[in-house]
Amino acid sequence: MDKGNGAKTSETLYDVLKVSNDCSDKDIRNAYVQLSKQYHPDAKGSSQDHTARFLKISEAYQTLSKPKLRREYDEILKASQNSRIIEVGKSARTIIHRQVQEKTIRPRET
Asked: Would you say domain 13-102 falls under CATH 3.10.20.580?
């Protein structure tokens, strides 16, 4: 993702679902349902790209649909932005996501 200044940033889970970070739980669910229908692997004309996108959509929904995980994700996201750790590669983003799900990391004190 390009923020307009030439700097690329990682796609957040909110970006995956095409919602804002202050959206409601209902908005998250509606976005998930809509995108799942569009990218589901069983959909007509589905490709490997669609399957990969569907997995990202499912992963985003699994985190953002659960209030506690969403809060933890938001705290980590805020801490990374405050620390200017914006360029996070796919593997690091996946590790952070897993750690949030497993509740093994806590956001840094600021």
From this structure: no
